[in-house]
Amino acid sequence: xxxxxxxxxxxxxxxxxxxxxxxxxxxxxxxxxxxxxxxxxxxxxxxxxxxxxxxxxxxxxxxxxxxxxxxxxxxxxxxxxxxxxxxxxxxxxxxxxxxxxxxxxxxxxxxxxxxxxxxxxxxxxxxxxxxxxxxxxxxxxxxxxxxxxxxxxxxxxxxxxxxxxxxxxxxxxxxxxxxxxxxxxxxxxxxxxxxxxxxxxxxxxxxxxxxxxxxxxxxxxxxxxxxxxxxxxxxxxxxxxxxxxxxxxxxxxxxxxxxxxxxxxxxxxxxxxxxxxxxxxxxxxxxxx
Length: 289
Ligand code: MN
Known about the structure:
By secondary structure, this protein is an alpha/beta fold. Helix content is 42%, strand content 16%. The site of manganese (II) ion has 4 residues, from loops.
């Protein structure tokens, strides 16, 4: 049967950086494993060759999305105008790269530093998030890019931990091209169950990360993917579903530490990615039947 969702894979399943050789490896392996979309983290985007990447993606027939979090010295949820300005600059540069490589989505923790925060978000900080993301959304709309608000757990951000937080933030930003991005790994930590957030997001759900509770092989942990995929079917979700998995076998300096990737959960990215692709197809076809 024909699947309605583009299926994606995170580049860190293959490679730890965005050098030309690594990008080529990621593109080749993503296409060979049968995926429709490749997601790049822009954590390490300085060495990404935009034109070459765009052409290689096009030649491989792949869609592309980009993701990132901000940093403590470049954080739009800060009360310090200089730190907010650095965060805003980083976001606009990331949007330019996303658009430059032909990306459809820029998503992630676009709203704050990615890492352990030591105090709650302030009202002034939240107001800064709304102002900056409203501006970013306008620019993104002009180049046909959708912005995702990825809901991350409490150890990685203090801005958006639940789907309801993200819906409120999206309401305040008030732009049609700002969508909700659910990630099953984070949902497991923060949400009551795997269904309600999907129903709450409804047609505002625009991007999905599929990951196990330990971020290893799908099905080897305890997440209730049956309920989750059923919920996606209930809302007629047709957007991207991207497999995200991390292991100490593939390290991106900086990002892997921010994600606390200390364990070796797999060594063979090819086997992992093929398994995940079939796992997602099995769930999608079962629920469609
Ligand atoms: Mn994620």
